[in-house]
Amino acid sequence: MGMKTLIIYFSRDGHTKKVAEYISEKLGANIEEITEPEKRGGLMGYLRSGKESSQEATPKINPLKNNSSEYDLVVLGTPVWAGNVASPVRTYLKEQSSGIKKIAFYCTSKTRMLRKHMRK
């Protein structure tokens, strides 16, 4: 039996989500999105995101359906915000890291390059 894997990600604009779906399909893994009570759309959401990330903030996230401690591997996806992980991902790590057995990361930036390689 293979390794039980969870792909978990945060995606403000959908780019990190596309990569998560691709990885999940290739690995046959469960997938879950980190969501928040407050939306991050538009220019104000963009500015808030950069500010929170550069200040290493940990905003409130919604409860998750999957328990990361039940998986052999967690693959965590984040967009790059102001040169850092997205602040909701920082919250996830703060709340869940003690139960994670093995973790792998991916980040998205300049997604045009990623889309080109994912078509192959």
Summarize the structure in short.
The chain has 120 residues and is of the alpha/beta class. 37% of the residues lie in helices and 22% in strands. The longest helix is centred in the first third of the chain and has 13 residues, at 15-27.
Q: Which spans have pLDDT < 50 for at least 5 consecutive residues?
A: none
Query: Which strand-content bin applies to the residues?
Result: 15-25%
Mean pLDDT: 90
Number of domains: 1
Helix fraction, binned, reads: 25-40%
Shape: globular
CATH third-tier fold name: Rossmann fold
**Category from helices, strands and their pairing:** alpha/beta
Q: Would you state the CATH class?
A: Alpha Beta
Largest sheet features: 5 strands, mixed
What is the first-to-last residue Cα distance? 28 Å
In sequence order, what are the helices and strands, one letter per element?
EHEHEEHEH
What is the CATH architecture assignment? Answer: 3-Layer(aba) Sandwich
